[in-house]
Fold this sequence. Notes:
Blueprint lengths: L5 E3 L1 H30 L8 H25 L1 E3 L15 E6 L4 E8 L10 E3 L3 H6 L7 E4 L5 E9 L2
Parallel strand pairs: 1-2, 4-5
Antiparallel strand pairs: 3-4, 3-7, 6-7
Amino acid sequence: MSMNKVELTKEGAEKLEKELRHLIDIDRPEVIESLQAARAQGDLSENADYDAARTKQAEIEGRIKEIENILANVKIISEKSKATKTVVLGSTVTIKDLSDNTTASYTIVGTVEANPIKGLISNVSPLGRAVVDHAVGDVVVVHVAQEYKVEILKIESK
């Protein structure tokens, strides 16, 4: 299976590696134990424990394969200097929504790491695309169904 490069921050890649180790070292052996215990109960045709363990095993193996594919195609976002003048992957940007004058801060990450609830937005999301490569003071248009403008107030890099 050929994948395009997946852009991740160093922290994002480490988090995926940690999840992979947990799946392989802890979750996989636990589900194998559950399968063995369910098999020991006898008839598998009407064994809910066995069915549940098989489903859990499929989920774990699928996630392991997914993470391995991501890590095999990862491109770590290079750490930029603290003097970054424009928004790049890994930057934390503070913006003001000019439609209602609210401010918010977001960290621009690759799609795999995106979690808007935690303030992590993808560089390919409408807001991410709008602010990347722009500087403090720039007013940019966010292209969504009802377009809006934001002003970049602050850019921070790790």
